[in-house]
Design brief:
Radius of gyration: 32 Å
Order of helices and strands: EEEEEEEEHHHHHEHHEEEEEEHEEEEH
Shape: flat
CATH superfamily of the largest domain: Chloramphenicol acetyltransferase-like domain
Number of helices: 9
Structural class: alpha+beta
Number of domains: 3
CATH topology of the largest domain: Chloramphenicol Acetyltransferase
Number of strands: 19
Strand content: 15-25%
Largest sheet: 7 strands, mixed
Helix content: 10-25%
Distance between the termini: 66 Å
CATH class of the largest domain: Alpha Beta
């Protein structure tokens, strides 16, 4: 008896999936566990596998189709077994294309070639000094044919002077060229393009609507002196160079955040419908920009890991995120998140809380700024950190205390070992 292949919930929050590519053709033999297709979920690209042995009798949806969880994707059965029409087969081959209505072409004027008039002074065709070119351009004069006495035959100002073309006399000595007419610019094709939402962009839209509206945000900003952290980072990287490892400012901030959360359990929390869950474990989500959105892989038990381990793990997770190869266990369960836009030269910003978490910090760029220290002005590396708080869980003083501990650890890295 034929077995239906359905769209499985490949992530905890998945409601539908887009079939990116089939890895098996109709008629191919399959075994339990074989990959049938790659599916784009709301977080990553996952494998849809066969749950029975047999032959792939039917690919019910084409590549690129979006199917709700539980919806029919294909049919596996015995070789030669007929597929019941009730299985919901959709034609996806040439016959389907032939029967589909052809959309009417967009009504737009045909593109016409743009006519360009010659400039009075075309770079590369006329050798002239910048000053000579400017004089000619301002006067609307053509330098073509004028013998230059500069290097390589270049026309210079004295050539204009020798020809008796001083100031007001320039126009009389050289032929006047009419100014170029405005370019006629036309556009061809459709005036806009509609691009369907990807699964990850749909999820981002839903989660933002569920966060910024219902969650009462408030924001706290502090500026941190990063001189000692920078010196510690440079020393660590010298020692780690032989192992091919390095530590970034982001790694230091992740470690300090995790240790601060361990001291401030009130911020390491989830808001639930009828209770608040205070976590004893610290799992830090790290916001990573991917091609069509944002995903937050998780560094678990970050407070117990070394800086080198955090650095290696965060880079590995970021690469997996960009390749859309994260497993659900790698992007779920964070207790607090960190979003860093410092590498984009952003000085300060606010981040949206990722429910059910109660807080997130937004990290700007580490940059040298003028600071008064002991009565004297000097340049010191500093960074601005803004904490977004869910006011249902975190009060102003609670968030301020957490930021104070984070600031202390970053300004004096030795505090991290206390």
């Amino acid at each position: 008896m034929a077995t239906k292949v359905v769209m499985e919930a490949l992530s905890p929050t998945m409601e539908e999936g887009r079939l990116v590519t089939w890895t098996k053709k109709e008629g191919d033999a399959v075994k339990t566990g074989d990959t049938l297709a790659e599916v784009e979920t709301d977080k990553a690209v996952m494998e849809l596998v066969a749950r029975v042995d047999g032959q792939l009798l039917q690919r019910a949806v084409p590549e690129g189709a979006t199917v709700p969880v539980g919806g029919l994707v294909g049919v596996i059965g015995a070789p030669g077994e007929k597929v019941d029409a009730g299985d919901g087969r959709r034609e996806t081959g040439p016959a389907a294309a032939a029967s589909a209505p052809t959309p009417a072409p967009a009504q737009h004027p045909p593109a016409s070639p743009v006519s360009r008039l010659p400039s009075p002074d075309v770079p590369g065709r006329i050798k002239a000094s910048p000053l000579a070119k400017r004089i000619a351009r301002d006067s609307g004069l053509d330098l073509q044919g004028l013998q230059g006495s500069g290097p390589g035959g270049r026309v210079v100002k004295r050539d204009l002077e020798k020809a008796g073309m001083r100031d007001a006399g320039l126009a009389a000595a050289l032929p006047r060229v009419p100014p170029p007419a405005p370019l006629a610019v036309t556009r061809g094709g459709a005036p806009y393009e509609d691009v369907p939402l990807t699964q990850i962009r749909k999820t981002i839209a839903k989660r933002l609507a569920a966060s910024i509206g219902p969650v009462p945000h408030f924001f706290l900003t502090t500026e941190v002196d990063m001189e000692r952290a920078a010196e510690a980072r440079e020393a660590l990287n010298r020692d780690l160079a032989a192992q091919g490892l390095k530590v970034s400012f982001n790694d230091i901030i992740l470690k300090a955040t995790a240790l601060a959360l361990a001291k401030h359990r009130a911020c390491n929390a989830w808001f639930q419908e009828d209770h608040i869950r205070y976590w004893n474990e610290v799992h830090v989500g790290v916001a990573v920009a991917v091609e069509d959105g944002l995903i937050t892989p998780v560094i678990r038990n970050a407070d117990l890991k070394s800086l080198a381990a955090i650095g290696a793990e965060s880079r590995d997770l970021a690469q997996k995120a960009r390749n859309r190869r994260l497993q659900p266990s790698e992007y779920t369960g964070s207790t607090f998140s960190v979003s860093n836009l410092g590498m984009f030269d952003i000085d300060q910003f606010t981040a949206v809380i990722n429910p059910p978490e109660a807080g997130i910090i937004a990290v700007g760029s580490v940059a040298a700024k003028p600071v008064v220290t002991d009565g004297r002005l000097e340049a010191r590396r500093r960074v601005r950190i803004t904490m977004s708080c869910d006011h249902r869980v975190i009060d102003g003083a609670t968030g301020a205390a957490f930021l104070g501990t984070l600031k202390q650890m970053l300004e004096n890295p030795l505090a991290m070992v206390l």
